Amino acid sequence: MNRTKSIITIAVIALVALIAVLVRQVAFAKEPDTYRFVAVSRGDIKATVSSTGTLNAVTTVSVGTQVSGQVSELLVDYNDRVKKGQLLARIDPTLALQAVTDAQANVEKSQAQALQASRDYSRNRELLNAGLVARSAYEQTQSTAEVAQAGVKSARIALDRAKQNLSYTNIYAPIDGVVIERNVQQGQTVAASLSAPQLFLIANDLSQMEILAQVGESDIAQIKQGQTAEFTVQALTGQTFNGTVKQVRLQSTTQDNVVNYTVVVAVENPRGKLLPGMTARVNFLTKSAENVLSVPNAALRFKPAATTTATKTATTTAATTTTARAANAQRTRGTGTRGGTLYVVDAKGQLQPIRVQTGITDGTTTEVRGTGVTEGMKVVAGTVSATSQTAAAPAATPFQSGQQQGGAQRGGARGGF
What we know:
Blueprint: H1 2-30, E1 34-39, E2 41-57, E3 60-64, E4 69-74, E5 81-82, E6 87-91, H2 94-129, H3 135-167, E7 170-172, E8 177-182, E9 189-190, E10 198-203, E11 208-216, E12 228-233, E13 241-255, E14 258-268, E15 279-296, H4 297-301, H5 309-333, E16 338-345, E17 351-361, E18 365-369, E19 378-384, H6 386-389
Antiparallel strand pairs: 1-19, 2-11, 2-15, 3-10, 4-6, 4-9, 5-8, 6-7, 8-10, 11-14, 12-13, 12-15, 13-14, 15-18, 16-17, 17-18
Protein backbone atom coordinates (compact mmCIF):
# COMPACT_ATOMS: atom_id res chain seq x y z
CA MET A 1 0.00 0.00 0.00
CA ASN A 2 2.82 2.42 0.90
CA ARG A 3 4.67 1.42 -2.27
CA THR A 4 1.63 2.28 -4.37
CA LYS A 5 1.23 5.68 -2.68
CA SER A 6 4.91 6.50 -3.33
CA ILE A 7 4.60 5.70 -7.02
CA ILE A 8 1.47 7.83 -7.32
CA THR A 9 3.18 10.72 -5.50
CA ILE A 10 6.24 10.60 -7.81
CA ALA A 11 4.00 10.48 -10.91
CA VAL A 12 2.01 13.52 -9.71
CA ILE A 13 5.21 15.52 -9.03
CA ALA A 14 6.62 14.69 -12.47
CA LEU A 15 3.34 15.67 -14.14
CA VAL A 16 3.26 19.01 -12.29
CA ALA A 17 6.89 19.73 -13.29
CA LEU A 18 6.15 18.94 -16.93
CA ILE A 19 3.10 21.21 -16.92
CA ALA A 20 5.18 24.02 -15.37
CA VAL A 21 7.82 23.74 -18.09
CA LEU A 22 5.21 23.77 -20.85
CA VAL A 23 3.46 26.79 -19.34
CA ARG A 24 6.78 28.67 -19.12
CA GLN A 25 7.66 27.94 -22.74
CA VAL A 26 4.23 29.04 -23.90
CA ALA A 27 4.55 32.25 -21.89
CA PHE A 28 7.96 33.01 -23.39
CA ALA A 29 6.72 32.25 -26.89
CA LYS A 30 3.96 34.81 -26.49
CA GLU A 31 6.33 37.55 -25.38
CA PRO A 32 6.76 40.10 -28.15
CA ASP A 33 10.10 40.62 -29.87
CA THR A 34 12.22 43.54 -28.73
CA TYR A 35 13.29 45.77 -31.60
CA ARG A 36 16.72 47.29 -32.01
CA PHE A 37 16.52 50.87 -33.30
CA VAL A 38 18.89 53.20 -35.13
CA ALA A 39 18.43 56.89 -35.88
CA VAL A 40 18.23 58.68 -39.21
CA SER A 41 21.10 61.17 -39.25
CA ARG A 42 22.13 64.07 -41.46
CA GLY A 43 25.64 64.58 -42.79
CA ASP A 44 28.04 64.02 -45.67
CA ILE A 45 28.60 60.69 -47.39
CA LYS A 46 31.50 59.71 -49.62
CA ALA A 47 31.51 56.67 -51.90
CA THR A 48 35.02 55.33 -52.34
CA VAL A 49 37.02 52.56 -53.97
CA SER A 50 39.67 51.11 -51.65
CA SER A 51 43.09 49.86 -52.64
CA THR A 52 46.64 49.49 -51.37
CA GLY A 53 49.90 50.66 -52.86
CA THR A 54 53.50 51.61 -52.18
CA LEU A 55 54.94 55.09 -51.79
CA ASN A 56 57.85 55.91 -54.09
CA ALA A 57 59.83 58.92 -55.19
CA VAL A 58 58.69 60.35 -58.52
CA THR A 59 62.18 60.07 -60.04
CA THR A 60 64.81 57.56 -58.92
CA VAL A 61 68.12 56.96 -60.68
CA SER A 62 70.25 53.85 -60.29
CA VAL A 63 73.95 54.77 -60.26
CA GLY A 64 76.25 51.99 -61.46
CA THR A 65 79.74 51.51 -62.85
CA GLN A 66 80.97 50.59 -66.31
CA VAL A 67 84.42 49.45 -65.16
CA SER A 68 85.50 46.68 -62.84
CA GLY A 69 87.76 47.08 -59.87
CA GLN A 70 88.02 47.66 -56.15
CA VAL A 71 86.13 50.54 -54.51
CA SER A 72 88.99 52.63 -53.16
CA GLU A 73 86.91 55.54 -51.82
CA LEU A 74 83.29 55.82 -50.65
CA LEU A 75 82.28 59.43 -50.10
CA VAL A 76 78.51 59.27 -49.39
CA ASP A 77 76.17 57.22 -47.19
CA TYR A 78 72.47 56.60 -46.71
CA ASN A 79 70.22 59.71 -46.57
CA ASP A 80 73.02 62.03 -47.77
CA ARG A 81 71.87 64.87 -50.01
CA VAL A 82 73.95 65.16 -53.15
CA LYS A 83 74.26 67.61 -56.02
CA LYS A 84 74.51 66.81 -59.70
CA GLY A 85 78.17 66.14 -60.58
CA GLN A 86 79.21 65.45 -56.98
CA LEU A 87 81.81 62.68 -56.55
CA LEU A 88 80.19 59.70 -54.83
CA ALA A 89 82.86 57.00 -54.98
CA ARG A 90 86.12 56.12 -56.70
CA ILE A 91 87.24 52.78 -58.12
CA ASP A 92 90.95 51.93 -58.01
CA PRO A 93 92.32 53.52 -61.24
CA THR A 94 95.57 51.52 -61.47
CA LEU A 95 94.49 49.22 -64.29
CA ALA A 96 92.77 52.03 -66.14
CA LEU A 97 95.93 54.17 -65.99
CA GLN A 98 97.98 51.30 -67.37
CA ALA A 99 95.51 50.89 -70.22
CA VAL A 100 95.88 54.60 -71.06
CA THR A 101 99.68 54.32 -71.09
CA ASP A 102 99.53 51.26 -73.33
CA ALA A 103 97.14 53.00 -75.73
CA GLN A 104 99.39 56.03 -75.86
CA ALA A 105 102.38 53.81 -76.79
CA ASN A 106 100.35 52.19 -79.57
CA VAL A 107 99.56 55.63 -80.98
CA GLU A 108 103.22 56.54 -81.08
CA LYS A 109 104.08 53.20 -82.68
CA SER A 110 101.38 53.64 -85.32
CA GLN A 111 102.57 57.16 -86.07
CA ALA A 112 106.15 55.92 -86.61
CA GLN A 113 105.00 53.14 -88.93
CA ALA A 114 102.83 55.58 -90.84
CA LEU A 115 105.79 57.97 -91.26
CA GLN A 116 108.01 55.20 -92.64
CA ALA A 117 105.28 54.02 -95.00
CA SER A 118 104.80 57.59 -96.23
CA ARG A 119 108.52 57.96 -96.96
CA ASP A 120 108.62 54.67 -98.90
CA TYR A 121 105.63 55.76 -100.91
CA SER A 122 107.24 59.13 -101.82
CA ARG A 123 110.50 57.44 -102.82
CA ASN A 124 108.83 54.87 -105.06
CA ARG A 125 106.77 57.55 -106.73
CA GLU A 126 109.98 59.34 -107.82
CA LEU A 127 111.49 56.05 -109.02
CA LEU A 128 108.35 55.26 -110.96
CA ASN A 129 108.57 58.60 -112.76
CA ALA A 130 112.20 57.77 -113.64
CA GLY A 131 111.21 54.31 -114.83
CA LEU A 132 113.38 52.58 -112.24
CA VAL A 133 110.65 50.67 -110.33
CA ALA A 134 107.73 48.58 -111.36
CA ARG A 135 104.22 49.95 -111.00
CA SER A 136 103.21 47.02 -108.84
CA ALA A 137 105.89 47.86 -106.29
CA TYR A 138 104.74 51.47 -106.32
CA GLU A 139 101.12 50.49 -105.70
CA GLN A 140 102.19 48.21 -102.87
CA THR A 141 103.96 51.07 -101.04
CA GLN A 142 100.92 53.29 -101.64
CA SER A 143 98.62 50.74 -100.02
CA THR A 144 101.01 50.27 -97.08
CA ALA A 145 101.05 54.03 -96.44
CA GLU A 146 97.25 54.24 -96.42
CA VAL A 147 96.95 51.27 -94.03
CA ALA A 148 99.48 52.90 -91.72
CA GLN A 149 97.40 56.11 -91.61
CA ALA A 150 94.29 54.08 -90.73
CA GLY A 151 96.29 52.37 -87.99
CA VAL A 152 97.08 55.76 -86.50
CA LYS A 153 93.36 56.63 -86.39
CA SER A 154 92.54 53.29 -84.74
CA ALA A 155 95.27 53.77 -82.13
CA ARG A 156 93.95 57.22 -81.29
CA ILE A 157 90.42 55.85 -80.85
CA ALA A 158 91.77 53.16 -78.50
CA LEU A 159 93.56 55.90 -76.54
CA ASP A 160 90.33 57.90 -76.22
CA ARG A 161 88.52 54.75 -75.03
CA ALA A 162 91.16 54.09 -72.41
CA LYS A 163 90.93 57.68 -71.19
CA GLN A 164 87.12 57.41 -71.00
CA ASN A 165 87.35 54.19 -68.97
CA LEU A 166 89.76 55.97 -66.67
CA SER A 167 87.17 58.71 -66.12
CA TYR A 168 84.57 56.04 -65.29
CA THR A 169 86.58 55.11 -62.20
CA ASN A 170 85.12 58.28 -60.63
CA ILE A 171 81.40 57.82 -59.84
CA TYR A 172 79.45 61.10 -59.98
CA ALA A 173 75.84 61.93 -59.05
CA PRO A 174 73.70 62.27 -62.20
CA ILE A 175 70.97 64.34 -60.48
CA ASP A 176 70.29 66.36 -57.34
CA GLY A 177 68.67 64.19 -54.70
CA VAL A 178 68.95 61.94 -51.68
CA VAL A 179 70.82 58.63 -51.43
CA ILE A 180 68.20 56.05 -50.44
CA GLU A 181 70.27 52.93 -51.22
CA ARG A 182 73.99 52.15 -50.96
CA ASN A 183 74.92 48.70 -52.19
CA VAL A 184 78.74 48.67 -51.82
CA GLN A 185 81.34 48.95 -49.09
CA GLN A 186 84.78 50.49 -49.30
CA GLY A 187 87.27 47.85 -50.43
CA GLN A 188 84.61 45.78 -52.17
CA THR A 189 85.39 44.58 -55.70
CA VAL A 190 82.74 45.17 -58.36
CA ALA A 191 82.62 43.37 -61.70
CA ALA A 192 81.01 45.05 -64.70
CA SER A 193 81.77 42.44 -67.31
CA LEU A 194 78.17 41.46 -68.11
CA SER A 195 76.06 44.26 -66.61
CA ALA A 196 76.58 47.46 -64.68
CA PRO A 197 76.18 46.71 -60.95
CA GLN A 198 74.11 49.21 -58.95
CA LEU A 199 76.17 51.15 -56.44
CA PHE A 200 73.65 53.78 -55.31
CA LEU A 201 69.97 54.61 -55.74
CA ILE A 202 69.22 58.34 -55.68
CA ALA A 203 65.73 59.82 -55.31
CA ASN A 204 65.34 63.17 -56.99
CA ASP A 205 62.89 65.03 -54.68
CA LEU A 206 61.06 63.45 -51.74
CA SER A 207 58.76 66.47 -51.41
CA GLN A 208 56.95 65.09 -54.47
CA MET A 209 56.06 61.39 -54.26
CA GLU A 210 53.68 58.94 -55.88
CA ILE A 211 51.71 55.85 -54.93
CA LEU A 212 51.47 52.86 -57.24
CA ALA A 213 48.10 51.41 -56.23
CA GLN A 214 46.62 48.18 -57.53
CA VAL A 215 42.91 48.44 -58.43
CA GLY A 216 40.80 45.44 -59.47
CA GLU A 217 39.08 45.24 -62.84
CA SER A 218 35.64 45.53 -61.21
CA ASP A 219 36.45 49.02 -59.89
CA ILE A 220 38.91 50.43 -62.43
CA ALA A 221 36.13 52.00 -64.54
CA GLN A 222 35.35 54.35 -61.63
CA ILE A 223 38.91 55.71 -61.48
CA LYS A 224 39.67 58.75 -63.64
CA GLN A 225 42.68 61.01 -64.10
CA GLY A 226 42.49 64.04 -61.81
CA GLN A 227 40.29 62.23 -59.27
CA THR A 228 40.78 62.98 -55.56
CA ALA A 229 42.21 60.26 -53.33
CA GLU A 230 42.78 59.96 -49.59
CA PHE A 231 45.24 57.58 -47.98
CA THR A 232 46.72 56.56 -44.66
CA VAL A 233 49.96 54.86 -43.66
CA GLN A 234 50.48 52.60 -40.68
CA ALA A 235 53.42 54.61 -39.34
CA LEU A 236 51.29 57.77 -38.96
CA THR A 237 48.17 56.55 -37.20
CA GLY A 238 45.23 58.96 -37.21
CA GLN A 239 46.57 61.12 -40.05
CA THR A 240 44.95 61.27 -43.48
CA PHE A 241 46.80 62.52 -46.56
CA ASN A 242 45.45 63.69 -49.89
CA GLY A 243 46.54 62.91 -53.41
CA THR A 244 45.42 63.16 -57.04
CA VAL A 245 45.15 60.43 -59.65
CA LYS A 246 47.99 61.14 -62.09
CA GLN A 247 47.72 58.15 -64.40
CA VAL A 248 45.68 55.00 -64.96
CA ARG A 249 48.02 52.57 -66.66
CA LEU A 250 46.55 50.36 -69.38
CA GLN A 251 48.88 47.48 -68.62
CA SER A 252 47.20 44.81 -66.50
CA THR A 253 48.64 42.20 -64.18
CA THR A 254 47.04 38.91 -63.15
CA GLN A 255 47.65 37.33 -59.77
CA ASP A 256 45.62 34.43 -58.35
CA ASN A 257 43.15 34.84 -61.27
CA VAL A 258 42.52 38.48 -60.27
CA VAL A 259 43.17 41.18 -62.87
CA ASN A 260 44.60 44.43 -61.47
CA TYR A 261 45.57 47.77 -62.99
CA THR A 262 48.17 50.18 -61.68
CA VAL A 263 46.93 53.64 -60.70
CA VAL A 264 49.55 56.34 -60.09
CA VAL A 265 48.58 58.83 -57.36
CA ALA A 266 50.59 62.06 -57.07
CA VAL A 267 51.30 63.07 -53.45
CA GLU A 268 52.64 66.24 -51.86
CA ASN A 269 55.18 65.61 -49.09
CA PRO A 270 56.48 69.05 -48.03
CA ARG A 271 57.32 68.04 -44.44
CA GLY A 272 58.99 64.78 -45.37
CA LYS A 273 56.73 62.63 -43.16
CA LEU A 274 56.14 60.10 -45.91
CA LEU A 275 59.04 57.78 -46.69
CA PRO A 276 59.74 55.61 -49.75
CA GLY A 277 58.49 52.06 -49.42
CA MET A 278 55.61 52.79 -47.01
CA THR A 279 52.39 50.86 -47.63
CA ALA A 280 49.44 53.19 -48.23
CA ARG A 281 45.74 52.34 -47.89
CA VAL A 282 44.12 54.46 -50.60
CA ASN A 283 40.47 55.48 -50.93
CA PHE A 284 39.52 56.91 -54.32
CA LEU A 285 36.57 59.32 -54.03
CA THR A 286 34.05 58.32 -56.72
CA LYS A 287 30.89 60.08 -55.49
CA SER A 288 29.93 62.39 -52.65
CA ALA A 289 26.78 63.90 -51.17
CA GLU A 290 26.60 66.76 -48.67
CA ASN A 291 24.03 67.41 -45.96
CA VAL A 292 21.85 64.38 -46.74
CA LEU A 293 19.81 61.99 -44.60
CA SER A 294 21.34 58.57 -44.08
CA VAL A 295 20.75 55.38 -42.12
CA PRO A 296 22.98 52.41 -41.23
CA ASN A 297 22.78 49.67 -43.84
CA ALA A 298 21.33 47.26 -41.27
CA ALA A 299 18.08 49.26 -41.28
CA LEU A 300 17.68 48.74 -45.03
CA ARG A 301 18.47 45.02 -44.73
CA PHE A 302 15.91 44.42 -41.96
CA LYS A 303 12.94 42.25 -42.96
CA PRO A 304 10.24 41.26 -40.44
CA ALA A 305 10.29 37.50 -39.81
CA ALA A 306 6.47 37.24 -39.45
CA THR A 307 4.27 40.24 -40.17
CA THR A 308 0.84 40.63 -38.70
CA THR A 309 -2.25 41.26 -40.77
CA ALA A 310 -2.11 44.97 -39.98
CA THR A 311 1.53 45.17 -41.01
CA LYS A 312 0.88 43.29 -44.25
CA THR A 313 -1.96 45.65 -45.09
CA ALA A 314 0.17 48.71 -44.27
CA THR A 315 3.02 47.36 -46.36
CA THR A 316 0.78 46.79 -49.37
CA THR A 317 -0.79 50.23 -49.03
CA ALA A 318 2.55 51.98 -48.64
CA ALA A 319 4.03 50.18 -51.62
CA THR A 320 1.00 51.04 -53.79
CA THR A 321 0.93 54.74 -52.88
CA THR A 322 4.68 55.24 -53.28
CA THR A 323 5.32 53.31 -56.50
CA ALA A 324 4.27 56.17 -58.79
CA ARG A 325 6.06 58.75 -56.64
CA ALA A 326 9.25 56.67 -56.66
CA ALA A 327 9.09 56.21 -60.43
CA ASN A 328 8.63 59.96 -60.98
CA ALA A 329 11.51 60.74 -58.66
CA GLN A 330 13.62 58.19 -60.52
CA ARG A 331 12.94 59.81 -63.89
CA THR A 332 13.41 63.32 -62.51
CA ARG A 333 16.76 62.69 -60.89
CA GLY A 334 18.11 60.36 -63.53
CA THR A 335 20.90 59.27 -61.18
CA GLY A 336 20.22 55.55 -60.97
CA THR A 337 18.85 55.62 -57.42
CA ARG A 338 17.31 52.45 -55.99
CA GLY A 339 14.43 51.79 -53.65
CA GLY A 340 14.32 50.37 -50.15
CA THR A 341 12.05 50.02 -47.14
CA LEU A 342 12.48 51.25 -43.58
CA TYR A 343 10.33 50.09 -40.68
CA VAL A 344 9.08 52.14 -37.73
CA VAL A 345 6.92 51.14 -34.75
CA ASP A 346 3.65 53.03 -34.30
CA ALA A 347 1.86 53.86 -31.05
CA LYS A 348 0.21 50.42 -31.03
CA GLY A 349 3.56 48.64 -31.28
CA GLN A 350 2.93 47.57 -34.87
CA LEU A 351 5.58 47.74 -37.60
CA GLN A 352 4.87 50.33 -40.29
CA PRO A 353 6.91 50.35 -43.54
CA ILE A 354 8.22 53.54 -45.15
CA ARG A 355 9.27 53.38 -48.77
CA VAL A 356 12.48 55.33 -49.48
CA GLN A 357 14.85 56.00 -52.34
CA THR A 358 18.47 55.11 -51.65
CA GLY A 359 21.49 57.02 -52.94
CA ILE A 360 25.22 56.54 -52.52
CA THR A 361 26.74 54.45 -49.76
CA ASP A 362 30.10 54.40 -48.03
CA GLY A 363 29.75 50.74 -47.10
CA THR A 364 28.37 51.50 -43.62
CA THR A 365 25.61 54.06 -44.14
CA THR A 366 23.39 54.83 -47.13
CA GLU A 367 21.71 58.03 -48.31
CA VAL A 368 17.89 57.85 -48.10
CA ARG A 369 15.11 60.09 -49.37
CA GLY A 370 11.38 59.71 -48.93
CA THR A 371 8.19 61.22 -47.62
CA GLY A 372 8.03 61.17 -43.84
CA VAL A 373 11.74 60.49 -43.34
CA THR A 374 13.16 63.07 -40.94
CA GLU A 375 16.38 63.59 -39.06
CA GLY A 376 16.44 61.77 -35.72
CA MET A 377 13.67 59.32 -36.65
CA LYS A 378 14.05 55.91 -35.00
CA VAL A 379 13.88 53.03 -37.47
CA VAL A 380 14.18 49.30 -36.85
CA ALA A 381 17.53 47.65 -37.57
CA GLY A 382 16.85 44.23 -36.05
CA THR A 383 15.10 42.29 -33.32
CA VAL A 384 16.18 40.68 -30.07
CA SER A 385 13.82 37.77 -29.35
CA ALA A 386 12.76 37.22 -25.72
CA THR A 387 12.80 33.46 -26.19
CA SER A 388 16.42 33.56 -27.31
CA GLN A 389 17.48 35.65 -24.33
CA THR A 390 16.60 33.01 -21.69
CA ALA A 391 17.13 29.28 -21.96
CA ALA A 392 14.51 26.96 -20.52
CA ALA A 393 15.23 25.58 -17.06
CA PRO A 394 15.87 21.82 -16.76
CA ALA A 395 12.84 19.76 -15.69
CA ALA A 396 12.52 19.26 -11.95
CA THR A 397 12.53 15.75 -10.56
CA PRO A 398 11.97 14.47 -7.06
CA PHE A 399 15.71 13.77 -6.87
CA GLN A 400 16.59 17.46 -7.56
CA SER A 401 14.28 19.08 -5.07
CA GLY A 402 17.17 20.60 -3.15
CA GLN A 403 19.07 21.93 -6.20
CA GLN A 404 18.75 25.39 -7.67
CA GLN A 405 16.91 25.45 -11.00
CA GLY A 406 17.66 27.97 -13.75
CA GLY A 407 19.34 28.59 -17.02
CA ALA A 408 22.07 30.70 -18.50
CA GLN A 409 21.08 33.93 -20.17
CA ARG A 410 21.93 34.01 -23.84
CA GLY A 411 21.10 36.82 -26.22
CA GLY A 412 20.10 36.31 -29.80
CA ALA A 413 19.53 38.68 -32.66
CA ARG A 414 18.00 38.27 -36.08
CA GLY A 415 17.03 40.45 -38.97
CA GLY A 416 20.05 42.77 -38.79
CA PHE A 417 23.80 43.10 -38.51
